[in-house]
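Fold Annotation — chain and its backbone
Encoding — discrete vocabulary of local shapes
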Amino acid sequence: MNKIRCLNCGTENQEYYNYCYNCAYPLKEHIKNKEITKLLGIALGYEMVNILDKVIEIYERILKEKPHYADVRYRLALVYEVQGQYDKAIKHLQEALNINPDYIQARNKLADIFIILGKYQEALIEYKTLLSTKVKYSFADVYNNIGVIYEKMGNLKQAKSYYTKAISINPRFAKPYYNLGNIMFSKGNYDAAIANYKKAIALKLNIPEVYNNLALALYKQGNIKEAEENFKKSTLLDPLFFDAHYNLALFYIQNNQLEKAQELINKIKGNFPYNYDINYLEKSIEKRYKERSKKEQINNIESNIE
């Protein structure tokens, strides 16, 4: 009679056994699949309550039995990414791609991690490999991400080209409009920057950066009222987004709204006590107060002479 060796503990069992008599591990293939389905459900439950060590334990257990399960390697990589264990995430993503070279989510995520690590050339290779993948996928996000890489590398011409391509593939994809707006802003083309920022907002890109940058472009155009409104929207959207608070305070100082500026600076100091950029704001407002005081003194002297 044939024996079945348990993959979990190594104990030999009779071939008609369904579970190992020593550790109760499933022995038959159809039971193993049921067990894996059950484990995947448990892992998802742990993931929902953010018990990631348990998630990792379960996925590693599945991979011990089925090392060619590409989807589990992808899921495990996502968990390692959340934990900041990028080397392990990269390893499992590369393994998943060795199993299935057309696994677009795994390749996309691998490229994303390379960007986080500043490995732009490696990211470009993965994204451009994605573009040659023969699967049904628009790749608008890939073109946008390639544009981000070229922008980070200082190649604005290539970045603009890829953002434009992303928009042509999916005109309702908000991110490339925002990114294109940033390039137009850097070139001093504020009309085009404003148009792209507003398009991104219309497509529900609700991030503080888009309102902050729109406000800066509006201010460059002399649209004071709308600039202030968008600085405020940015601060409300994310009270911990320092740039918008800083820019709004600077806006008030430059427009001689010193009481508003002082109130905001006091608030910023409470929220960001260790940010040295606040020193510049305090020196700027102090300078403006002195200028105001001198001007008032001059006006008083002139009025007395009259």
About this structure: The mean pLDDT is 91.
